[in-house]
Fold this sequence. Notes:
The structure holds 2 protein chains of 2 kinds. Chain A is an all-alpha fold. Chain A is built from 15 helices and no strands. The two termini of chain A are about 30 Å apart. The chains are: A mainly alpha, B alpha/beta. At the A-B interface, helix 1 and helix 9 of A face helix 2 and helix 3 of B.
Amino acid sequence: MKNLFQKTLFDHKKGLMFWVLGILASDLIITSFFPTVKKMPELMNEYVESFPKEISVWFGDLSSIGTPEGFLNVELFSFMFPFAFIAYAITVGTNIIAGEEKNKTIDILISNPIKRSTLIIQKFLAMATLITIFCFIAWFGFVLVTPIMKVNLFNLAQMCINLALIAIFFGSISILTGSITGKTGISTGLSGGLAFITFLINGLAKLSSDFESIKYISPFFYYSDSNALFNGINIMHFLILISSIALIIYLSIYFYKDRDLGV
Amino acid sequence: MAVNQGEIFGFLGPNGAGKSTTIRILLGIIKPTSGTVKILGMNHLKNSIEIRKKIGYLPGEFLIYPNLTGSQILTFFSNIKNEYDETYLNVLAEKLQIDLNKQFGTLSQGNKQKIGIIQALMHKPELIILDEPTNGLDPLVRNEFYEIISDLKDEKRTIFFSSHNISEVEKLCDRIGIIREGKLITTEKILELKSKQIQIFEIEFSKIQPQKKDFTLPNIENVEVYDKTVKFTVIGNPTHIIKKVSEFEIKKLITHEPSLEGIFMTYYGDEK
């Protein structure tokens, strides 16, 4: 362990392993239902029609559930995967910044010749790396299940990149809240709460034209609007998410560099 | 307050007096509300990275990553510091009798403290800041630690040493500073403090039963009475009290000099 980046990866390797096993199991279990869904289009149509149409604004286009991409979109990428990955990102983001203060390890760390900005950047990069590995393995899981469900792996890879970005976005929010407050509870609560509220906002904006413009404040809009499983990534949306993450990390450094730590 | 290069400076005060807070200010973990700090001739905020390269620090409660072994912790910090003396590290580990292959989280309080001491000293820093360093150490290891500190003093390292264990400070330090409720009360050389004219008297009378009020006199402190015996501390010249007690028949009279702790309590025990 030569630096904080490597140490942060080292600290989270066991945790990542359990999350990865969970995600691979989800890949396998969910896709194993696809052949059944595909074989019973009429039953599925009835099932889909029994839901209120409004629900598709949050859980994807139910009418496309008979296609591999539509199935994955509804079952995994609209709700379950984003929130699982965001939960992981917030856990890591909270642990690496506010956690150092909660565990009282920050004093000894800061007494060493390491800049506070370097601390934030290295820890952020480690978190982003962990999430990227996590997303890659989720994608690789779908490569393994191609005999059950043939999906466009290139588009799926782009969807996974979007997934990584939305998770890194909220992980960065937990780094920011940890940098400002140093409290793990506040860091987790605010980041998780913000994820939930912006998810609702993105759906509500689709329900009424009066609210349509508020969709732009929700990171979920940039995650889901291009429907990457069908169309690939929207470069503009991709850049907006990247820029937002960079801004959040800049703010984290700004607030962290002069704050009294561990008080 | 100034600490001279090459001296061991004891920073004394009761729990909650502000010792750890002062140290956290020195390290730039928290910022002072007023005043300035210079360490090794540099402003502690403007040159914090340069200063921290030359500092070794042991916090009062050495809490570090429980999932790492002692060896991993020391390697990690030596990489961050970018310099350490491996031979010296091994010498320290041997002197303190610590197995570096065990996970930190499984170690006893004393062994955790040993890892903390090694990480603070392994790069032989110019300035060593120790906050209650012997917490949890058994007496034998404590003596080893005192030897290590004395050796570092011989090498002209400066040591800033916070403690509420006065006998430890008496043993190691050249000078002390006393802090109470966030304010520095005094700084003095240990030898000067010990040379203060303070004596403890213990007198047993043959016939009379002494009363506490009879000893309520200027420059007399800490009066205790039991049966025919009275015990008190005299600050300064004891002639007047000797004259007073010599009016009565004395069975036994003992006098002795107080420990540094006694001097400390006499001078600063009641100050608010």
